[in-house]
Each structure stands twice: as C-alpha cells, then as structure tokens.
Design a protein that fits this description.
Helices cover about 40% and strands about 15% of the residues. The chain has about 450 residues and is an alpha/beta fold. The protein has two domains: about 160 residues, 3-Layer(aba) Sandwich (Rossmann fold), CATH 3.40.50; about 250 residues, Rossmann fold, CATH 3.40.50.1100. The strands form four sheets. The chain has a seven-stranded mixed sheet with strand order 1-4-5-15-10-11-14, sandwiched between helices. A four-stranded parallel sheet has the order 8-7-6-9, with helices on both faces. Strands 2-3 form a two-stranded antiparallel ribbon. Strand 12 and strand 13 form a beta hairpin.
Length: about 450
C-alpha cells in the first residue's frame, strides 16, 4: 500500500508566502472607500502598515518573518493524508488526499494568519486587537496569536455560534482574550440592532461592524480579519505550498482541488499556489471547486457587484459575489460559512473561469462528515465537511465512469467543538435550510451605489 501520511520536515516549512496578484491575467479591481465610493487603500486606523502593503502588493513572493516561521514550526508542516480507507469504503478508483490543518494548537488553518497579523501589529506598537468570529475558529486562533506577542484581544462572536459552541469561548478566554456574543451592547451598532430585534442571532457582517467600530474608537487598537482580504489569503498559501511538495513526493498532481468557502481563506490557501499552473497553461484541465452552504450560497446565487464588507457600511466596498451586506443567514452549524460576501480575489478567479462553485445542504454535509469520520477517524468541522461532500460525490462519479482522478481536499480543521451538531444529526434532529430567496432579495435592495 502507498504511504498514508506524506510528511515534510521543519526545514521545509515555507519561508515565503505566494502572492497570486503577480500572476493574475487581469488585475484585481481596487477596493472603494465606504464613504466616498472612490478607489482607495484600506483606511490606516484599521490595519498595520505592513499588512496594508501586503494587501496591494504585486510581488510574487513575500518573506515570512523569522519570528513567524519559528512559531509556525509548532504545527507546520501539516500532514497530507492519502484517504485509503475512504477510497475503499467508496469502492472508487479515485485517489483521495486531504491536507489536514486541524493539527494546529487552535484546531484549524486560521493560526497561519493569526500569528502573522499579531506579529506585524506588535512590531508597529499596537497593544490591542479587535475582531469578529463566526464559528469561533478565527477567534481562537487570534487569541493564541495575541498571546504569543503579548497583545490584548476583544472578540465579537456571532451569537448563534456563541450559544452553539460555548467551549470555543472558553478556549479564547484560556488564551487571554475577551469574547462577547454579537450583536452586543458594547457598541453603538450592536445596541441599535438589539433594540430592533433582541433575539437577533447575529451574522459575520454584524460582528465585523462591531469590531471595526471598536478599533476606530481606540488609539491603541487595530482591527484584525480572519478571511476575505488579500493579506489573509496570502498568509494561508503555506497550505498550498506544502501540499505541492507533498503531492510531488506522492508522485501525483491533483486533477481536482476541493475546499469550502465562507470568506475564502482556507480554500485560497490551498488552491492559489496551484492556480498559477492553470493560469500559465501548464495544467489547463485542473478543476478547482469551491463549496458553500445552500443556506448562504454567495457565489452560486449572489450577483457579482459592489457591496460593503459589513452590515454598518464601515468596511471598504469590494467587487464580489454577495447576498447583500444586511443579509442574516439561517443558523447553520457551519458558522464560518455564514458570510454574505466572499474574498474579492476568489470572486475574481471565479469570474475569470479558473474556479468553480457549488452549494450543498446541511444534511448532506453531515452525511459526508460521518462517512469520513468512520473511514478516516478524523471528525471534521462542519465547514470543511462541505468540501468532503463534493469530493465524495466526485469519487463516486469516478466509480460509475471507471475513471481514476486524483482529488485533493482542503480539510481546514477538526469538529471537536461541534459535537452538539453531530449529536443532532445522529438523533435525527438536525435542521436543514435551503436558499433563503426572500431574505436575499430584501438584502440586495440595500447595495451601495458605486460610480463606474
């Protein structure tokens, strides 16, 4: 039998991040200022100058600071697995691989950018960060990143996930952060939303608005985002860079790369180093598939247009697939995928035809998660379980066609804090949600008017 784990050594941890903006066939449309609607760089009070530079850089390779590299070695390089047991269970000729980021101390890929962002803010003299989190993976990761560099952290956690996943909050507090449910009474935007709807379940758009308001209100505080923006996706390319080496060690190159999308960071981290081969024509037939929930189908149902990154309209306006910044999605357990928009970089590559998108429902997602857990032993988070659903379906198509394909999955984290959702599925009580058409139509009426 071929190897189950394909491992790199600590000496092979990437020393540079890959910036796909150097290789785009068409440049990424610039962000727009939330007030003037004109092209802009990110407002200085929000991010450190180094992160602003990375956001707009066209350099192909950006050095990873040595301090960040040393912390990366606590969990990097992460393992690449050949899913022999899943292949056998499916009776498929497909070769299935998954890159497992659940080995990080925070349990997901988010630590790859959390450490980098904490480092750059510390270096600039910032003492405190404010952020949002959906399912809690980002909040957990940034809590640890801030602990490494002695920064304070305030986390606004989407209320439905705050209630569904209490131990994520405990994890953040263990690492020294303060976590509150969003919408919260701690900000003006939170109070205004609670006055209108005391039972509001929250959204990433609301939590982002609260964190941005927090950061704008204090001189010692910067805002930190765990997905969507270019510099975040840049930091995650360590995933794909390692995967390229590991696939080469396995003697294969993927025919298909599959990852879940909420803001887009784990999926982008995996596919961006590979998409260069598709852009240059070296691997023109490479399939790159993003997967989202039917309850929040941003790329598969949303228009490609200008929209705010948050509910209050304080964040920059981006050209992206969106369901409307005021959209509050149904409370699916994949909290990290409940974002109204998508990383502009991912959207740009979808629009150019380099990336495809699909949507799957919550019941089908957990069916795939259970099958994967019973074959491979790893209990996946609900977010990457969406990618597992599509990967399993593609492997079954290979079986029907008698066709061998090599499938590479971005398995962004474990589901140990999501066992409440697994309990509901196993007891037959898990809710399902389809496309909330009326809610989306209402939200899309609030899109900003951006001049050409």
């Amino acid at each position: 039998m071929d190897a189950t784990k394909i491992l790199l050594t600590e000496k092979e941890v990437p020393t540079k991040w890959y910036n796909v903006q150097a290789d785009l066939p068409e440049p990424l449309p610039p962000l727009r200022h939330p007030a003037t609607k004109e092209p802009t760089i990110l407002p200085p009070p929000l991010f450190s100058s180094a992160l602003n530079d990375q956001e707009f850089s066209k350099e192909r390779w950006i050095e990873i600071p040595e301090e960040v590299q040393e912390i990366y070695k606590l969990w990097r390089p992460s393992p690449l697995y050949r899913a022999h047991r899943l292949e056998k269970a499916l009776d498929t000729p497909a070769h299935i691989y998954y890159k497992y980021e659940g080995v990080s101390p925070a349990g997901s890929h988010k630590l790859n950018t959390a450490v980098a962002q904490a480092y750059y803010n510390k270096k600039e003299g910032i003492k405190r960060l404010a952020t949002e989190t959906g399912a809690g993976q980002w909040g957990s990761a940034l809590s640890l990143g801030c602990q490494y560099f002695g920064l304070e952290l305030k986390v606004y956690m989407v209320k439905v996930s705050y209630e569904q996943k209490p131990y994520r909050r405990i994890m953040m507090e263990t690492w020294g952060a303060k976590c509150v449910p969003s919408p919260s009474p701690d900000t003006q935007i939170g109070r205004s939303i609670l006055e209108k709807d005391p039972n509001n379940t929250g959204s990433l758009g609301i939590a982002i608005s609260e964190a941005v308001e927090d950061a704008f209100g204090r001189d010692d505080t910067h805002y930190s985002l765990g997905s969507v923006l270019n510099h975040v996706l840049l930091h995650q390319t360590v995933i794909g860079l390692e995967s390229m080496k590991q696939m080469e060690m396995a003697g294969e190159y993927p025919d298909m790369i599959v990852g879940c999308i909420g803001g887009g960071s784990n999926f982008a981290g995996m596919f961006l180093p590979f998409v260069r081969d598709k852009i240059t024509g070296k691997k023109p037939k490479l399939e790159i598939i993003s997967v989202e929930p039917t309850a929040c189908p941003t790329v598969t149902k949303g228009p490609y247009t200008w929209d705010f990154g948050d509910v209050a309209g304080m964040a920059p306006i981006a050209l992206m697939y969106t369901l409307g910044h005021s959209f509050v999605p149904p409370p699916v357990h994949a909290g990290g995928l409940r974002y109204h928009g998508m990383a502009p970089l991912v959207c740009h590559l979808v629009k150019l035809g380099f990336v495809d998108a699909r949507a799957v429902n919550q019941i089908a997602t957990f069916q795939a998660a259970i099958q994967f857990a019973r074959s491979e032993g790893i209990i996946p988070a609900p977010e990457p379980a969406h990618a597992l659903r599509v990967a399993i379906d593609e492997a079954l198509k290979c079986k029907q066609a008698g066709q061998k394909k090599t499938i590479l999955i971005a398995l962004s984290g474990h589901g140990h804090f999501d066992l409440g959702a697994y309990e509901k599925y196993l007891s037959g009580q898990l809710e399902d949600y389809d496309y909330p058409k009326e809610l989306v139509e209402a939200a899309l009426k609030d899109l900003p008017q951006v001049p050409a």
